[in-house]
Every structure is written in structure tokens, then in C-alpha cells.
Amino acid sequence: MKTIQHTPADAAVLCVALNPAIDLTIEVSDLRIGEVNRAQRAQQDAGGKGINVASCLADYAAKVAVTGQLGRDNAALFESLFNDKGIDNRCLYLDGHTRVNTKIVDPAKGETTDINLPGPSQTKAQINAHLERLADVMNTLASTVRWVVLSGSLPPGWPADTYATLTRHAHALGSQVMLDTSGQPFGEALKAGPDVVKPNRDELAEHLGRPLGSMEETIEAGRQLLTECPGMGLVAISMGHDGAVFVSPSQVVVAHPLDVEPISSVGAGDAMVAGIVAAQLDGLPLDRGAQLATAFAAAKLTRLGPHLPAPEIVRALAATVRLDRPGGPDYTP
Ligand SMILES: Nc1ncnc2c1ncn2[C@@H]1O[C@H](COP(=O)(O)OP(=O)(O)OP(=O)(O)O)[C@@H](O)[C@H]1O
Ligand SMILES: [Mg+2]
Question: How confident is the model over 202-249, as pLDDT tens digits?
Fold first, then answer.
């Protein structure tokens, strides 16, 4: 394993990126399947949910470390992102490449085609060894890390309760946990009682096994999660261009989206996760946290990679986010 050591370790947030990806964006006007196409341009960005969250938090001047798994053969893109943003690199290195996820953007048709690879193939023994080493990284950073962010899919073969295991370990070390994943890993991790979760509406509907059509149904679903998981302090349900609902045991806030011209919708949810953690670090109340998280998402939407403008610009955007308080005197759904 090659790990760039930063001393002294001072990260307040540890982002776990088990299955990162290089996002390869290729622009092809009038894409024709099964034919030779001429591309206008291509761009590669270090990506994957955990990396995006770390990158946005670092842009907001939070002290961030990242761990997870990187392929040795194309790690340079990630390493330069970490170096540029002062992110403490605690990743484990695998032989071979980190997967490349391809996005073919067709400006003429206004369509994007995604082709995502599954991630590394690892034996049970390798997976168990890496789980132990992740726990070691958490132990090493425990004295300063206040939040552990668990986000994204699990690589092939990793146990569905991996995030549950890491949540319990983080809690044993005195850190809080933000969880953003879906399917079985989400359901399993809920049993370990993460402190904050940010499913999007579809992911929460899938977990509950019922559609979430109206705002009332969405808020009720958030309340149900809080009841199922005692100790959970916040359920943030993002709804794309419909904004997001923030449900705590004592309050509900609906944050309207900002009116932005999206350049890339990739990572808006990850930026929102970063904004929620930033709000927690700053000790903001629920309404101001909802505004900051929405500003993070909007600011990210106007950029291609996982980047934010300067913190004062993000804070100014946050002040413009409109909120509703369902149940409050002025609320009309
Ligand atoms: N078209 C849009 N215009 C304005 N804001 C948007 C738009 N799309 C998303 N957002 C903002 O980003 C937040 C998160 O978006 P979304 O619900 O799509 O996350 P997600 O599905 O988790 O995305 P991903 O996991 O792909 O990053 C929304 O709550 C909203 O504030
Ligand atoms: Mg998401």
C-alpha cells in the first residue's frame, strides 16, 4: 500500500470512497450507435461519490481526509485532486486501474448516455483485509474526525453490511456518520443507526417499498425513518429540481432549489451531502443548514467537476434559498 502521510493528522471529516471512478465525459453531437462518431472533446475528472463529497468540503475549507480504494495504474488524477485541495490521502491501493465511467454528452439531442463499469474484482480475503485496514485508518484519525461520510455503491463482492460495520466502528470511536447510499447497503446500514442520511426520493421510495408522490408522503417517509432508527438526527430527502426536505425529530423544513442553469447534474446530491456535513461542523440550526446544503448543490450544478466557488460565494447563495415550514402558519404545499 502507498499512502501519502500528512502529519499531524487534523481532518475533521473522513470520506470513505470504496468504489471511486474516473468520470470520462465525451462530447459527440448527433451520436449514432453502431457507427463511427467524431467527438468534439473529452474531459476526465476524478469522481465517485465519496471523492465528490471530499472535494466539495475541501473547497469550503473543511479539513478532510479520504480513504477507500484506488487502482495504482491511474491514481494520478485522484492524487493531483487531493494535492490541489489539501485532502489527506489515506486510500488503499489496488493493483490495476480504478474503473472509468463514460458519459457521452450529445449537445445536439440534449441527451447524456452513461456507461458505468462495476469496479474491482477482489477475493473475500482481499476484501476482509481491506475492511480491517479501513478500520485502522479510522483509528489513526479518530482524535480529530468528527464526521465519517459513507457514500456510494459498494464494489463487487463487498458484504451488504459493510456500511453498517463502518458506522458501528465510527460510533465506537466517537465520530458521527453521514450515510448516502441505496438498496441493500442502505437498509443494512440503517440498522447501525447513522446520524444523518440523504436518500433521494427514489432511493427512499425503493427502501420503503412504496411510491412517494406528494410532499406529505415524502415528509411522512422521513418521519418513518426517524422512528425506525432511534438516535438519527436528520433525514434529508433530495428531490432534484423540486428541492429537498429536511426532517429532524422536532422540525421539518422544505428547501426550494435555486434557479440555476445546470451545466452537469452529476454530483448535485454529493454536493448536498457535503453541505449538510459543513452545516453540522458549523453548528447551524436546521433551517440554515438546509439553505447551505441547497447552495452547495446549486453551486456544483454550474460546474463540470466536483468543485465549488469560494466559501463566501456559497454562503451568499445560501442566504437566498427560500424555505417552507410545513405545519407553520404560512405553509401551502
Ligand atoms: N435542475 C436543478 N435545478 C436546481 N437545483 C437542483 C437541480 N437538480 C438538483 N438540484 C439541487 O440538488 C439537490 C440534490 O439533487 P438530487 O436530488 O438530484 O440528488 P441525487 O439524486 O442524490 O444526485 P446524485 O446522487 O446523482 O448526485 C436538490 O435537492 C436540489 O437542491
Ligand atoms: Mg445521490
Answer: 999 999 999 999 999 999 999 999 999 989 999 999 999 999 999 999
The Cα–Cα gap between 29 and 118 comes to 27
CA of 158 to the centre of ligand 1 (A): 28
Mean pLDDT of 300-326: 95
Contacts 24+ apart (CB under 8 A), 322-326: 322/255, 322/256, 323/253, 323/254, 323/255, 323/256, 323/287, 323/290, 323/291, 324/253, 324/254, 324/256, 325/251, 325/252, 325/253, 325/254, 325/287, 326/215, 326/216, 326/219, 326/252, 326/254
Q: Which residues contact 211 (CB under 8 A, 6 or more apart)?
A: 205, 217
Question: Minimum-distance ligand to the CA of 48?
Answer: 1
Q: Which helix (H) or strand (E) holds 17?
A: strand 13-17
* CA 272–ligand 1 middle distance (angstroms): 8
DSSP annotation of 35: S
Residue in 262, 223, 320 with CA at minimum distance from that of residue 105: 262
Ligand 1 pocket residue status of 301, Cβ below 6 Å: yes
pLDDT band, very low/low/confident/very high, at 332 (cuts 50, 70, 90): low
Q: Which domains does the chain have, with CATH numbers?
A: 1-28+42-192 (3.40.1190.20), 195-327 (3.40.1190.20)
Local structure of 106: helix, strand or coil: strand
Question: What percent of the chain lies above the pLDDT cut of 70?
Answer: 96
3-state secondary structure of 245: strand
Which residue among 301, 302, 317 is best mutated to probe the pocket of ligand 1, counting the most ligand atoms within 8 A of its Cβ? 301
| Residue to mutate (ligand 1; options 212, 241, 261; most atoms within 8 A of CB) | 241
Condensed to tens digits (0 to 9), the pLDDT of residues 40-72 reads 999 999 999 999 999 999 999 999 999 999 999
Instruction: Return the bridge partners of 102, or none.
Output: 24, 115
Residue 68, Ramachandran bin (φ over 0: left; ψ between -120 and 50: alpha; else beta): left
